[in-house]
């Protein structure tokens, strides 16, 4: 597994690369921060360690650019400790967040967990197909509509599976957050709203000509969500 380190403190970046190699991973860090997406495309990592405070554009921006190209796991490393920054990290497409200074053992656990979920874990309990509407169905982390398809992130898949398993019933926001917490996802009430909005946007884009994707996941105000 290859890890790409995006950290403008090159001494720390080098230390992180050495740690990752010690743990058995291939690791590289970048020195050109003008076009991080080009570096990402060239190196094709399996996981990205992303700082927030970077030259030119911040880590939130670059994570969003990576998300347009790939679902590779992105782990934010930052000295920022405000909840707003953690929510922003999730909103930009990040998968987890570790505050600096961090314990190296904790970082290793996070990296292993994220790689396991991304490349060993498969959403669902089997090779099943679950219809969302008469034209749209979910299968193994993917949503299909007519001849189009879109891939869901791990968090989006967990939300979709929870709603489909309880079709017609309202799944509370607290229940959804507990489901995501069990897979080591950092989820707040605000970031859950962002995740559901991103999921709705994907459904709307996928089936814009046939199905109102934004209306597939209904809201019970102040309580939770459901699929009818």
TrEMBL record:
<dbReference type="InterPro" id="IPR011006">
    <property type="entry name" value="CheY-like_superfamily"/>
</dbReference>
<dbReference type="InterPro" id="IPR036388">
    <property type="entry name" value="WH-like_DNA-bd_sf"/>
</dbReference>
<dbReference type="Pfam" id="PF00486">
    <property type="entry name" value="Trans_reg_C"/>
</dbReference>
<keyword id="KW-0805">Transcription regulation</keyword>
<dbReference type="Pfam" id="PF00072">
    <property type="entry name" value="Response_reg"/>
</dbReference>
<protein>
    <recommendedName>
        <fullName>Stage 0 sporulation protein A homolog</fullName>
    </recommendedName>
</protein>
<dbReference type="InterPro" id="IPR039420">
    <property type="entry name" value="WalR-like"/>
</dbReference>
<keyword id="KW-0597">Phosphoprotein</keyword>
<feature type="modified residue" description="4-aspartylphosphate">
    <location>
        <position position="51"/>
    </location>
</feature>
<keyword id="KW-0804">Transcription</keyword>
<keyword id="KW-0238">DNA-binding</keyword>
<dbReference type="InterPro" id="IPR016032">
    <property type="entry name" value="Sig_transdc_resp-reg_C-effctor"/>
</dbReference>
<dbReference type="InterPro" id="IPR001867">
    <property type="entry name" value="OmpR/PhoB-type_DNA-bd"/>
</dbReference>
<dbReference type="InterPro" id="IPR001789">
    <property type="entry name" value="Sig_transdc_resp-reg_receiver"/>
</dbReference>
<feature type="domain" description="OmpR/PhoB-type">
    <location>
        <begin position="126"/>
        <end position="228"/>
    </location>
</feature>
<comment type="function">
    <text>May play the central regulatory role in sporulation. It may be an element of the effector pathway responsible for the activation of sporulation genes in response to nutritional stress. Spo0A may act in concert with spo0H (a sigma factor) to control the expression of some genes that are critical to the sporulation process.</text>
</comment>
<feature type="domain" description="Response regulatory">
    <location>
        <begin position="2"/>
        <end position="115"/>
    </location>
</feature>
<feature type="DNA-binding region" description="OmpR/PhoB-type">
    <location>
        <begin position="126"/>
        <end position="228"/>
    </location>
</feature>
